[in-house]
Design goal:
By secondary structure, the protein is an alpha/beta fold. It has four domains: 7-77, N-terminal domain of TfIIb (Single Sheet), CATH 2.20.25; 83-152 and 361-467 and 490-536, Rossmann fold; 158-348, Dimethylsulfoxide Reductase, domain 2 (3-Layer(aba) Sandwich), CATH 3.40.228; 597-709, Barwin-like endoglucanases (Beta Barrel), CATH 2.40.40. The protein is 28% helix and 17% strand. It has 22 helices and 31 strands. It has an eight-stranded mixed beta sheet. Helix 2 (97-115) crosses helix 18 (497-507), helix 3 crosses helix 19 (518-529) and helix 7 crosses helix 11. It is globular, with a radius of gyration of 25 Å. It binds ligand MGD (2 copies), iron/sulfur cluster and molybdenum atom. Residues 14, 156, 190-194, 196-198, 218-221, 223, 237-238, 240, 313-316, 351-352, 600, 602-603, 605, 607-609, 701-702 line the site of one ligand MGD. One ligand MGD binds at residues 125-128, 152, 155-156, 314, 318, 351-352, 420-424, 426-427, 447-450, 452, 464, 466, 497, 601-602, 609-610, 612-613, 675, 683-684, 687, 700. Pfam families: Molybdop_Fe4S4, Molybdopterin, Molydop_binding. This is Molybdopterin oxidoreductase family protein. InterPro entries: Asp_de-COase-like_dom_sf, MoPterin_dinucl-bd_dom, Mopterin_OxRdtase, Mopterin_OxRdtase_4Fe-4S_dom, Prok_molybdopt-oxidoreductase.
């Protein structure tokens, strides 16, 4: 193929990290004059997004979010100067970098002196590049000396990560390239709506079925993904573990277990078998609502396929028993012998742009770079040496994400929080409580690209460069490390997160070890990760400048990288996969008389996560302007609700109000809300923060609610914040007017 002109790089959003080419906009215009001034509907973006057919994951295909990503560069919708708040309740006002950074450093010192180092916390994000995630973890442990760091990836794939580490000795989302999906014989896809969440990946499922392969989807809703399946199992939310145990029961009963594989490549089957035998099909039908004949059909299809994959995503994982549930699926996969061989295996579809790399290099509460454990003496020794400190000076593990947020402003909790790349006011469970906790902090600092709802609460807001404005590496859902290249300079008063961390470390008296150049940070990351499970030591910027990236582990410059894992042995000490005995338990909050329905939350095609970015993109806002409550017409009838009527979704935590959207694709005992919006329609006002005891994952996917028709008018929540910042952007593109106040 021809080399693209322009800058080949990668999308700012999800874990596919689709390849795209960025070209200066005036390359394509008639050069008749300067670009038109920015308005909310015709943003003056300096770049246009074009296809990069040579990148193997998406082969040129992009979803609407990727195609419109350059709109995020529009100065009218983003932060262009630091902001500070002079006292609680005062509005944010523009400030110089010196003033903003001095303020942060002074407050951090004061809080540290008064309350101890652990009172200063850091909250990171799975969208940050490897370089940022690495430097953020080092910043917490070396510059702040605090154990209090965790990140939004805890809310994402932490249950699958915990289960994969225990079962396989290693956690890499997919143990094979995504394209292998097209070449297997059967895919069991559990709790993933990838037609909406990773659209270019759908082609691999279509290729699979086009070749005669089978697709089974497990989802309480008949999504666009489920509509592609030969068999769609529609269980009650939160009952996947019973389903997996019941399927294993049927496999054992029917003599479908691959006993040779189980004996040679696994341990622990006997205990797993005992529990599965308690889950006879009619019992599982009662627990899950999936008819016995469908359970049998699914098992037979899966067992009969010479090769097969079991893939999970958030639908199965975001539960207070998410880790056990993933073990249930892994056990089934192993018992049928569909792992540790080509075109077969268990995989987790990670979510955020750097959901994989972001969990490998140290922003996680319990972890050091290279996916090392913070409690392993050898790992501490190795990393301390790279960092030039004593192992004893490395803090121990801190609280998990929700616990960290929940501790804010409480005795013994954090009194200062520095947030980089997350918007927990919208995305954390029991969000009204989290918001209250954040307001109780002595210091909230947010580094972001836009004035997110969390940034709007901060004492200091630091405008950070984004995606097309800086170089860095990301590790996609396949474990493929790619180079996202800079294509354009950031606005003058915007800095990169690396520059921010470097300047803050300096102000805290740590003058070395915090380089602001991404390549310098990556070179150190290579050394820090050397010998660890996620070994990047053989990966260099030069090696990943081409089209395919390099898959970790890659322990040497002459090592080709590892696209496929576990073919000969698993990464456990004895090389065998662990089957972990797990038993079914109900959801943390089962429906009852007062709250008789299940609420499921998730995503829509047009918006990304907390919506902080995509709600500011005109085409995406037009495609999906606001929140909604999806419910079955039978349920709507019973409640006297018509399509478009405002309904309140009420749980023990609070109420969210949004228009009803009637759909026969959902069970009549379940309602669905996307979580992309703030204000009255914020789904997370309602969700349950019950945590998985092993992974710290909240039960985002299911809680008990009731619906109430709403008669009083509801203020339009969707774009209050957007309008505000757009308005000030029009008035003065590079200076922020006072914005939302923290009271
Ligand atoms: N458009 C878009 N794409 C995205 C994102 C986005 O915000 N928007 N975010 C990215 C990120 S970070 C992530 S993590 C991924 C998430 O990608 P997905 O996991 O595909 O997305 P979700 O919509 O959260 O959940 C998937 C499905 O789980 C189902 N589900 C709910 N409860 C259960 C259950 O108990 N069992 C089963 N089997 N299924 C259940 C829901 O009905 C839903 O259809 O998407 C990534 N891509
Ligand atoms: N109810 C419910 N809640 C959920 C989920 C669910 O399914 N249901 N899913 C959960 C999941 S899987 C996830 S991953 C979380 C995600 O939830 P969040 O962490 O809130 O995710 P984002 O909206 O991506 O937030 C990223 C923020 O960082 C900013 N940003 C982007 N790039 C950069 C950068 O390079 N530097 C800095 N400093 N900032 C940057 C963006 O503008 C945005 O404000 O939500 C979780 N919450
Ligand atoms: S699928 Fe994900 S990475 Fe690809 S263009 Fe869409 S948001 Fe970007
Ligand atoms: Mo995620």
């Amino acid at each position: 193929m021809t080399e693209p002109t322009g800058t080949p790089t990668h999308c700012p959003y999800c874990s596919l990290q689709c390849g795209m080419v960025l070209r200066p906009t005036d390359d394509r215009t008639d050069h008749a004059g300067p670009p038109a001034p920015a308005t909310p509907t015709t943003p003056a973006t300096p770049l246009s997004v074009e296809e990069w057919p040579g990148f193997p994951v998406n082969r040129g295909a992009l979803c609407g979010k990727g195609r419109s990503a350059a709109d995020l560069l529009n100065p009218a919708v983003r932060l262009t100067t630091p902001l500070v708040r002079d006292r609680p309740g005062a509005p944010l006002r523009p400030a110089t970098w010196n003033e903003a950074l001095d303020r942060v450093a002074q407050a951090v010192r004061r809080i540290r002196d008064g309350h101890g180092a652990e009172a200063v916390g850091v909250f990171g994000g799975g969208g940050l590049t490897n370089e940022k995630a690495y430097l953020l973890g080092k910043f917490a442990r070396v510059a702040l000396r605090t154990p209090s760091i965790d990140y939004n990836g805890r809310f994402c794939m932490s249950s699958a990560a915990t289960a994969s580490n225990r079962a396989f000795g290693l956690d890499r989302g997919l143990p094979f390239p995504l394209a292998d999906i097209a070449a297997t014989d059967c895919v069991l896809l559990v709790g993933s709506n990838l037609a909406d969440t990773m659209p270019p990946a759908l082609r691999y499922l279509t290729e699979l079925t086009g070749r005669g392969g089978r697709l089974i989807v497990v989802d309480p809703r008949r999504t666009r993904t489920a509509a592609q399946a030969h068999l769609h199992l529609q269980p009650l939310p939160g009952s996947d573990l019973a389903l997996a145990l019941g399927m294993l029961h049927i496999a054992i009963d029917g003599g479908l277990v691959d006993t040779e594989f189980v004996a040679r490549r696994t341990t622990g089957f006997e205990a797993v078998r005992t529990i599965a035998m308690d889950h006879w099909p009619t019992r599982v039908e009662r627990l899950t609502g999936v008819p016995v004949h469908q359970l049998r059909q699914a098992v037979q299809t899966l067992a009969a396929a010479p090769t097969a994959m079991v893939l999970t995503a958030r639908g199965s994982e975001q539960h207070s028993k998410g880790t056990d549930t993933v073990h249930g699926w892994i056990n089934l996969c192993l018992a049928l012998g569909k792992a540790g061989r080509p075109r077969s295996g268990y995989g987790c579809l990670t979510g955020q742009g750097n959901g994989q790399g972001g969990r490998e290099h140290g922003q996680k509460a319990d972890q050091l770079p290279g996916y090392r454990s913070l409690t392993d003496p050898a790992a501490r020794e190795h990393v301390a040496r790279v960092w030039g400190i004593e192992p004893a000076d490395l803090p121990g593990p801190g609280r998990s994400a929700y616990e960290l947020l929940d501790s804010a402003g409480t005795p013994g909790g954090v009194r200062a929080l520095l947030v980089f790349g997350s918007n927990p006011v919208v995305s954390a469970p029991r969000a009204a409580h989290v918001e209250e906790r954040l307001r109780a902090l002595d210091l909230l600092v947010v580094s972001d690209v836009v004035l997110s709802e969390t940034a709007a609460l901060a004492d200091v807001v630091l405008p950070s460069a984004q995606w097309a404005e800086e170089t860095g590496t990301l590790t996609n859902l396949e474990g493929r490390v790619v180079l996202r290249r800079k294509a354009v300079d950031p606005p003058p008063q915007v800095r990169t997160d690396l520059q921010i961390l470097s300047a803050l470390a300096d102000r805290l008296g740590v003058h070395h070890g915090f380089p602001a150049e991404p390549r310098d940070v990556f070179e150190e990351l290579r050394r820090a990760s050397a010998g660890g499970p996620a070994d990047y030591s053989g990966i260099s910027y030069e090696r990943i400048t081409g089209e395919g990236g390099v898959f970790w582990p890659c322990p040497g410059e002459d090592h080709p990288g590892t696209p496929r894992l576990f073919l000969d042995s698993f990464a456990t000490p004895d090389g065998r996969a662990r089957m972990v005995a797990v038993d079914y338990r109900p959801v943390a909050e089962p429906p009852d008389e007062r709250y008789p329905l299940y609420l499921v939350t998730g995503r829509v095609l047009a918006h990304y996560q907390s919506g902080a970015q995509t709600r500011r993109v005109p085409a995406l806002r037009a495609a999906e302007p606001g929140p909604f409550v999806e419910l079955h017409p039978h349920l709507a009838d019973r409640l006297g609700v018509a399509d478009g009527d405002q309904v309140a979704v009420v749980s023990r935590r609070g109420r969210a109000v949004a228009p009803a959207r009637l759909s026969t694709a959902i069970r009549s005992d379940v309602v669905f809300m996307p979580f992309h919006w703030a204000g009255p329609g914020r789904a997370n006002t309602v969700t349950n923060p019950a945590l998985d005891p092993l992974s710290g994952m909240p039960e985002f996917k299911v809680c008990a609610v009731r619906l109430e028709p709403v008669t009083a008018p509801v203020p339009d929540p969707a774009h209050t914040n957007v309008r505000h910042i757009v308005a000030h952007g029009e008035a003065a593109p590079h200076a922020a007017a006072p914005v939302a106040s923290r009271t």
